[in-house]
Amino acid sequence: MFSQSLMHRFDQNATALAESMIRKVAPSAFAETPAADRSDRYAFIKTIDIIHGMEQQGFQVVRAVEARTRVEERRGFTKHMIVFRHRDHMGYAPMRALRRMPEIILINSHDGSSSYQLHAGLIETICSNGLIVADELFATVRVQHTGRILDAVLDGADHVMHSLPGILGTAEQWSSLALTQPLRLAFADAAAYLRWEEAQRPVTPEQLLTPHRHDDTQPNLWKTFNVVQENILRGGLKGTSPTSGRQARTREVSSVNEHVRTNKALWRLAGEMARLMGVASPVQPQGQIIDVEAEVIA
Length: 298
What we know:
This protein has 8 helices and 9 strands.
């Protein structure tokens, strides 16, 4: 579970998060040592050093979250997610001009529960829920806790950056694909399976298609994807428990792992619908993938 989540403002006062603010919600990013049960083979580097390295490359922190734990020995070392945006995309003017902005998502832990992971992402400026795109279409870099980690992560950030223009191109493509209401309902119905088992589903596909802003009413693939994603990840929809029959609200997706998994699965689902409509994803530039399948050394 996320202990807290902090995101920068989305108005004319938008600025990067200060280290003091990051420390409040993601103290594990400032760990000075790994968890006590890590072996001598575990190469440790502070997440804050990664943040500083990314800042030198022009990236600033715009969101920070950390996983909750009940184990006392894990506190201060748990999985955390830091979201970066390039300084050229910060501020009110770029938000108004671009509508959609690429991001880099760093996931790490100091207790052996995660490798360093860098994911390509995208955020729609009219809302604050960013997305993480699927591995098979865009770059995901995993760097094991051995060797020259800082260099590998920064090289990986450059690799992910090369994939970001293609993400924006995909968003534009999906925006041009008009969906009939039956197709939109089919998308929402399939998306519901990603979140709940059929017997436990508390809401209808129609509810998942309920927009929160006027700009989201357009019946194209991109807006349909965004609306469903927001309703699933943020929760808050009134529903009925299939088991008890009681009315309740759907819960926010608050696990780091589940947040990433659901985001990527929804992106794949949208990509498959685009493919079935005869639209292939843009060809991505090829780059070096660093330790893509590497496992954490405990």
